[in-house]
Amino acid sequence: xxxxxxxxxEKTVELYDAHTKAIISSAVKGINGTxxxxxxxxxxxxxxxxxxxxxxxxxxxxxxxxxANIQKAEDREFLLRxxxxxxxxxxxNDLLAPENRKLQVHENIERGIFxxxxxxxxxxxxxxxxxxxxxxxxxxxxxxxxxxVYSSRSHTIFRMVIESRDRSQDDALQTCxxxxxxxxxxxxxxxxxxxxxxxxxxxxLKEGSHINKSLxxxxxxxxxxxxxxxxxxxxxxxxxxxxxxxxxxxxxxNARTVIICNVTPAMVHVDETKGTLQFxxxxxxxxxxxxxNEIVTDAALLKRQKREIEELRKKLQENHSExxxxxxxxxxxxxxxxxxxxxxxxxxxxxxAERERRMKEQIENLSTMVLxxxxxxxxxxxxxxxxxxxxxxxxxxxxxxx
Length: 402
Hints:
Layout: H1 12-28, E1 33-39, H2 45-50, H3 58-72, E2 76-88, E3 91-94, E4 105-108, E5 112-115, E6 121-123, H4 126-138, E7 142-143, E8 151-152, E9 155-166, E10 178-188, H5 195-198, H6 203-226, H7 242-246, E11 256-262, H8 270-283, E12 294-296, H9 298-401
Parallel strand pairs: 1-10, 1-11
Antiparallel strand pairs: 2-3, 2-6, 2-9, 4-5, 7-8, 9-10, 10-12
C-alpha cells in the first residue's frame, strides 16, 4: 500500500511536510537520508524536486530546513559540504566543476561508497547552497523530445554532507572529538522513455537507452530487496549501473529513504503509470536500517571509556555499600542465631548435669541398700548352718541306736 497520494491541486510543500521534513531533521542529527523522484518522462519529477520561483520544490525546501534545524541545535557546531553530480550515458560528471568528467565510483572502509574527484564546496548559508544549485543546473544535460521540451537527459544527485560535534567544554560531558556525519541525497531521476512516444533518434536515442537501462537496474534492485534476496544471502545487482551503486546505502541500507513516484493523469500513458505504481508497490516493501553515524577519534574514545569506567565505579560503590549493609545484617542474624544456640546448649548441659546428679544419688542409694542386704544375708547363713549341724548330730545318733 502506498503511504500517501497527492493530486494535481496540492502543493509540493504539503508533500514535503508530510514525508520529507522528518528526513531532513534526522539528517541534521546524524542519520543518512535520501529523497528521489521516480516516474516516466514528462511526469513532473524535476518540477517536484526543483520547483519554480513561486513554488519551491523538495530541494530548496530541504536546504532551508537544514539550516533552520542547525539554528535550533545550539549545543552543536556544524560543518556542511555540498556536491552536485549527474549520471549521463552511464558516466559521472561533476556539475560544480564541469571539467571533472567520467568520474569513478570507489569504496573503502573509511568513506564507504564515494565518487573519487567529486568537488565538495563548504557552505555556511542557504543562499550559498542555492547559488551552487543554480550553477550546477546550468551544466546539466537536457534536451527536447516529443513528450517534453525541457527533458532531463541525466540523473542528478545533489548531496549534502552534514558534520556536527558537541560544543560542550565540560570535562565530564565533553565529546567534541566524536563527530556525527550524515549524507543527504536529493535525487532527480531521468524519466523512462518509449521510443515510439518520444521520437528519439541519434543522441537522444542513445541517452534514452542508457536512462532505461539504469532505471531497469534500479527496478531489479528494488524487486530483489522487496523479496528479501539480500537477507537470504542472494545477489543484488547494485554494480550493474552507476545510479544503483551510488545509491546503494539508501536502498535497503543505512538511510531513511523517501521515494516520490510521479505519474501523469493522461489516459494515453496508462501503461507507464501502471509500471510506476508497480515499482512503488515493490519499493514500499524494502526495509532500511537507519542509525546515527558517529566517527570517534582515539582521544574521544579514550575519554568516553574513562567516563564510562567512572560511572561504573560509582555504581559499583553504590552496589558495594548496599552489599555491605546486607552482609552486616546477615552477620547480625548469624550472631543472634549463634547466641540462641549457645543458650540452648548451656541449658541442655545444665539439665544433663542435673540428670547425672540425680542418677548418681540413685546409684549411691542403691549401693547402700545392696550393701545392707548383703550383711543381713551373712547373718542368716550362719544361723542356718548351726541348726543344720545340730540336726546332723542328732541324725547320726539315731543311726547308731538302730
